[in-house]
Amino acid sequence: MFDSGELQAMSDEVLVDALRRAHGAAAFAQAAEVRAVRELYRRRRGEKRHGGAAAGEFAAAEATAAVYVGEQVAAALIDVGLGLDELPQTAAAFESGLIDLARAQVIVAAVRDLPVEVLAEVERTLVETAARSTPARLRQTARRWVTKIDPGGEQRRREQRELDRDVRISALQDGVALFDGVLPAMGAQVVANRLREMGSRVCAEDPRSVAQRRADALVALAQGDEMLACACGRAECPAGAAPEGVPRALVQVGVSVEALAGLTEDPGLLAGYGPVDAALVRRIAEQARLQVVSERGDSGDEARRAIEGQCRFPGCTVAAAECVMEAVDSRGENPRGGHGRGGAGRSASHHDSAVVGSTVALCSHHHRLRSSAGGWRVRRLDGDRLSWSSPTGDRHTTVREGARYLFPHIDSEAPESRIDTAAMVSPTPQPGLDLTYPIAAHRLTHRQLAGSTPEDAATEGPVAW
Ligand SMILES: [Zn+2]
Ligand SMILES: [Zn+2]
Asked: Does a structural domain hold residue 374?
């Protein structure tokens, strides 16, 4: 495509365009790989000797031997290929390089439980969104819409999936062990927020990274300690004084008043996690402190964070509760230090109160990126939309994610369809996750592909394709 000499000679704009073309070409090649492995599967299925589950295993084993991916990865690629058979718009976008494997995989996984009668409408909006989203953002939007379309089915699937909860520890080499598992979303946020909170209460001289403190906090919790001991080693360390009592871990959920009252089934946003069904929100709310957020109002820092929902940088999914709030106006200034330069003689605080909702959430990483001389410019287009322009002039628009949960009527791109698949949810447990290769965590839609245990292999039944 281009060698490093050609790349070095390019202007920034041409270089970014080259990056975009290379990514599209990689997606084109990924689509070809998925089609090839799916065709291998079709052939093995057609042969009498490999009926049922065995066809998936044989095809996956052959793909593994041919290109040296893990068998789970090969099975996931076949599964994506089978999913794309039902999703012609997604397949076309993937094959033209408009979306890559990661985003095609998100769409296949998001719609796998929806019946065909609503697929076409949902798929169209998802493909449009995918073309301008990162996989993480796309997954959140897709989960929000699927939960809106099929709240009963989502609730049922969550209840089934919660049965798979598990925590595992396995030895790695070099004296460490892998600690992983599956927790209900709410419980996971309680753990995550508690570990973060414990890790944040050491003094500034503590030599450990945030990640190391999180790990140490988990062990401290298991030992029955309420605090993580500071590791600065100073006798005069101020972090030693334990506060009275330990605060409960704070978990935040944004939801519409109507869904909270049971009048609608629009999903809520569990901060740091993503969309959750209204039934779960109502259960959480039984023990929650409620704060009303008005759609018009400029009602304080917490309310603004709830409306923002997440960091406003394109593609970022850091919860607004973890962000700094900073002013952005409609002129596209690039202020340093987190506040407007106060053009036209106005102070930052005056400016804040003069324009309703003029502060936006930015995680500390993107706050630094905006404040540095990196050349990112941001300006407010209206009450909802921010326009970002990259150093090379690419434009990206981001919206208030939290507001789409608090005020569902503004989620205007969401599909209109409503169905209920609760009765169709199968209680079949899912195969375990392998966190070592991202695509292997793909939850197989076509469960016959995972027939790698004797029990599974024994249950060959009629299949749908
Ligand atoms: Zn200390
Ligand atoms: Zn961010």
From this structure: yes
